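Figure S7 source data.
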Amino acid sequence: MPDGDFGKGLRGDYSRARADYTVEASSHAYTDGDHETWRTLYRRQTAQVARYACDEFIEALYALELSDRIPDFDKVNGILVKATGWRIVAVPGLIPDDVFFAHLAQRQFPVTVWMRKPEELDYIVEPDLFHDFFGHVPLLFNPVFAGYMEAYGRKGPEALALNSVKLLARFYWYMVEFGLIRTARGVRAFGAGMLSSHSELAYSVDSPEPNRIRFDLERVMRTDYKIDAFQETYFVLDSFDEVFAATQRDFAPLYAAFRDQPAFPAATILSTDQIIQKGRRALAPRAA
Ligand code: HBI
Ligand code: FE
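Tokens for the predicted 7,8-dihydrobiopterin complex:
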């Protein structure tokens, strides 16, 4: 069992977790109701992804051949390991930052074992199995994105040592959770946060409300985010190569420069931004 009080106040059962916070995937018993909840969520999200998700996500989702039941972790790993060397590991829920980073650095993605309840279809505070699996696993099949996720994990220890996890976490939030990408068919979603959300997926791609701004590493690290509302700004990639390339930079100077600076509010527009769309709720442009 992991040491300390981690897990207190969280929904998962941490009592049987190993030192690396993993649990046996098969140890979690799913009810018929859990499978039904999966089926409902899976159907309504797959109905939307053709229109709003990037092609890499859609292709991998179909390659996964998910059925109408909660997927089997071992079966998924059988094809995922062959594709990119990534595997999924089962965890009780959120895990400490250092442990999370270490898993990613080893090409292991922690997937929460428990399913949300039927009354939580539209909104849930902690990430559950549906978010972690449906939102995150498909892009791990893409070699460039897979490399990016490992490189992100490898940045963890330095950020911890330099008291800058907040800045590194914003990079994850605005890309892995809420990233958009420009494609031949327009802007599409690749972030797990919107891909697993019934309402934010279309909003992130189509709504005139939020800002859509070209990705810039420093800009992202300096921007606050909200965890309990739709995003006020989305950052847009031209390609996954671009976000991988960002991880090859030295982050230490960025941490030194911005760690103790106040962050930009999420709706901010800067005079230096490359704006794809200025949202209706955008704040007045300001200097960086
Ligand atoms: N644990 N299971 C899980 N999933 C996450 O996305 C996660 C986590 N622990 C820490 C964390 N995310 C973030 O704080 C890091 O990206 C910084
Ligand atoms: Fe997530």
